[in-house]
Amino acid sequence: NAGVTQTPKFQVLKTGQSMTLQCAQDMNHEYMSWYRQDPGMGLRLIHYSVGAGITDQGEVPNGYNVSRSTTEDFPLRLLSAAPSQTSVYFCASGPPSGSYNEQFFGPGTRLTVL
Amino acid sequence: AQSVSQHNHHVILSEAASLELGCNYSYGGTVNLFWYVQYPGQHLQLLLKYFSGDPLVKGIKGFEAEFIKSKFSFNLRKPSVQWSDTAEYFCAVNLGNFNKFYFGSGTKLNVKP
């Protein structure tokens, strides 16, 4: 199993550009989520999904969109990048709600917005 | 709003010293509790977790944590740290609906050889 994979590893954008961060998992996990990690602030939940076709907002959803068309994939879209979105982004997945769930994290994407 | 507090932002220890990292959360209902570790340049890995039962849980690499419900705390401990424990440690709380995880701001541990 590859676990949770993320692409790209690094990305530099200009203000106003759009892009999609890719996340995939091969563990058949129903739960997937996106976090951003900023110095001194830990990880903050952006969006999450409890299954294909179902998504919901986390703590800091503004400026980000998600969709979940398959169990395996959970892309994160930045529609118009802003310098405040410079961060390290982690995708995570876990077993279904109600089970003894934990999250498995991907390697992260380091995004810089100029 | 729910919150997770880690009061120690940066801890420096010598090898063989004992470690205790504090974690407090602000939620009165059912919670599941986790400690994750992030080694330099790597992604988060689970150290240990608590769902129910014995409030003293043991994890990997000699770490343990104690859940004290009355204090809303889940402190991480290790009797004798090693240089390889140098990393950032995150406490996380999953609320009773299982769908949202809240992380603390992290504690950077630097172990001097």
**What is the share of helical residues of chain A?**
under 10%
Look at the structure and give the mean pLDDT of chain A.
92
Record field, number of beta strands of chain A: 11
- What's the number of helices of chain B? 0
Largest sheet report of chain A: 7 strands, mixed
| SSE topology string of chain A | EEEEEEEEEEE
**Content-based structural category of chain A:** mainly beta
Beta-strand portion of chain A reads over 45%
Strand content of chain B: over 45%
H/E element sequence of chain B: EEEEEEEEEEEE
* Low-pLDDT residue spans of chain B: none
- Shape category of chain A: globular
Low-confidence stretches of chain A: none
Oligomeric nature of the chains: heterodimer
Number of distinct helices of chain A: 0
Rg of chain B is 13 Å
Provide an overview of this structure.
The complex is a heterodimer of chains A (about 110) and B (about 110). In chain A, strand 4 and strand 5 form a beta hairpin. Chain A has no helices and 11 strands. Chain A has strands spanning about 5, 10-15, 20-25, 30-40, 40-50, 55, 65, 75-80, 85-95, 105, 110-114. The model of chain A has no long low-confidence stretch (mean pLDDT about 90). Chain A is an all-beta fold. Chain A is globular, with a radius of gyration of 13 Å. In chain A, the strands form 2 sheets. In chain A, strands 2, 4, 5, 6, 9, 10 and 11 form a 7-stranded mixed beta sheet that branches. In chain A, strands 1-3-8-7 form a 4-stranded antiparallel beta sheet, with no helix packed on it. Chain B has about 110 residues and is an all-beta fold. In chain B, about 0% of the residues lie in helices and about 50% in strands. Chain B has no helices and 12 strands. Chain B has strands spanning about 5, 10-15, 20, 25, 30-40, 45-50, 55-60, 65-70, 75-80, 85-95, 100-105, 105-110. In chain B, strands 2, 5, 6, 10, 11 and 12 form a 6-stranded mixed beta sheet that branches. The interface of A and B includes residues 31, 40, 90, 100 and 106 of A.
